Amino acid sequence: MEAFFEDLGEKRFRAHQVMKWIYHRHVTEFSEMTDVGKALRAKLEARAEIRPPNVLFDKPSVDGTHKWLLGMDAGNAIEAVFIPDKGRGTLCVSSQVGCGLNCQFCSTATQGFNRNLSTAEIIGQVWVASKHLGNKTHLDRKLTNVVMMGMGEPLLNFDNVVCAMSIMRDDLGFGLANKRVTLSTSGLVPMIDRLGEESDVALAVSLHAPNDALRTELIPLNKKYPIAELMDACVRYLRRKRKGESVTFEYTLMRGVNDSPAIARELVRLMKSFANQMQYADAAKVNLIPFNPFPGTRFERSGEEEIRAFQRILLDAGVLTMVRRTRGDDIDAACGQLKGQVMDRTRRQAEFRRRLEEGAPPHAA
Ligand code: SF4
């Protein structure tokens, strides 16, 4: 932004003024930027536009969760979800239109893939939510955390995601602390290393299974980057950060698939070995997510008893483990349920529909 103003023959601090109008006050008209001189406002109107994403609809849930469907180009739309909780408000942000990976338990995966989102389209999701909530950066924060956990694999859209996350954390942007911005990945090992070099956000990993046979079945990417390599990358990532920080391992519990006591004990060993390498107990946090069903899925949510028993095994072994309460499932905004509208460039969406109509297991393809 500073370079843009220099190109206009203006001082760099003008960028700071405009950033504050956009991100702190949600102003999209140059004419309303009263501390910017008239001549510069006219110049800006001729050269630039401030265009937030187009809200196709927004939907509140009975539990306070809020979902936005945001129109992109050519019939594409993505989703962002706000989840209020005690003392915090978390926005789940999308990074791609659809997703090219094919995690078997994920609704986005059934939609196929269209394209990466631009930096503007990513930060625009935060802007829309921030405006809706009446969020005031540095004054009255309604939006306290952002998780790059919506549609898409964020590390496959590296540059745009890293740039958007820097605006989330910048004082002239949304001013969030590093640890309040989390990137969640399905495990692209080389890109985790690159993220460590270029950014300082919190890391979450979609683990969902403690051994390669099961994880490859659920997350095909595991074939390329097996668990041992993934865990080594997490160790390298965390070693770059201040001692005491942790990696969150997301674990979706599916009945009869990955929720047995034997698998819980295997997960304990994996988490313990990670903590041993880091040399502090809470280096790994496990987030158990009861599976959220979507039409056509072959998986079911684990029972309440199995979920508690699984958590108990981890806790008893000293692994910090939380169960994520399901939020927003009345508006299909729960974890793993985001779909948007994807003009699919792969054949996955059509294939999924065909198998659904035929009554075959849709994800077996
Ligand atoms: S879980 Fe994430 S990476 Fe896997 S298919 Fe869904 S959106 Fe893509």
UniProtKB/TrEMBL annotation:
Q: How is the cofactor bound?
A: Binds 1 [4Fe-4S] cluster. The cluster is coordinated with 3 cysteines and an exchangeable S-adenosyl-L-methionine.
**Could you say which residues bind S-adenosyl-L-methionine here?**
152-153, 184, 206-208, 292
Its localization reads: Cytoplasm
Its domain of life reads Bacteria
Q: Which residues form the active site?
A: 79, 335
Give the EC number(s) under which this enzyme is classified. Answer: 2.1.1.192
Q: Which residues cross the membrane?
A: none
InterPro entries of this UniProt entry?
Answer: Aldolase_TIM, Methyltransferase_A, RlmN_N, RNA_MTrfase_RlmN, rRNA_lsu_MTrfase_RlmN/Cfr, rSAM, rSAM_sf
Chain ranges of the Radical SAM core domain = 85-330
Q: CDD domains annotated for this entry?
A: Radical_SAM (cd01335)
Q: Which residues are involved in binding [4Fe-4S] cluster? A: 99, 103, 106
Q: Which cofactor does it need?
A: [4Fe-4S] cluster
Q: What keywords tag this UniProt record?
A: 4Fe-4S, Cytoplasm, Disulfide bond, Iron, Iron-sulfur, Metal-binding, Methyltransferase, rRNA processing, S-adenosyl-L-methionine, Transferase, tRNA processing
List the catalytic activities from the record. adenosine(2503) in 23S rRNA + 2 reduced [2Fe-2S]-[ferredoxin] + 2 S-adenosyl-L-methionine = 2-methyladenosine(2503) in 23S rRNA + 5'-deoxyadenosine + L-methionine + 2 oxidized [2Fe-2S]-[ferredoxin] + S-adenosyl-L-homocysteine; adenosine(37) in tRNA + 2 reduced [2Fe-2S]-[ferredoxin] + 2 S-adenosyl-L-methionine = 2-methyladenosine(37) in tRNA + 5'-deoxyadenosine + L-methionine + 2 oxidized [2Fe-2S]-[ferredoxin] + S-adenosyl-L-homocysteine
Q: Which HAMAP family match?
A: RNA_methyltr_RlmN
Q: What family does the Swiss-Prot or TrEMBL record give for this protein?
A: Belongs to the radical SAM superfamily. RlmN family.
Known function: Specifically methylates position 2 of adenine 2503 in 23S rRNA and position 2 of adenine 37 in tRNAs. m2A2503 modification seems to play a crucial role in the proofreading step occurring at the peptidyl transferase center and thus would serve to optimize ribosomal fidelity.
Q: What is this protein called?
A: Dual-specificity RNA methyltransferase RlmN
The species this protein belongs to is: Pseudomarimonas salicorniae
| Highest classification ranks of the organism | Bacteria, Pseudomonadati, Pseudomonadota, Gammaproteobacteria, Lysobacterales
Protein's gene: rlmN
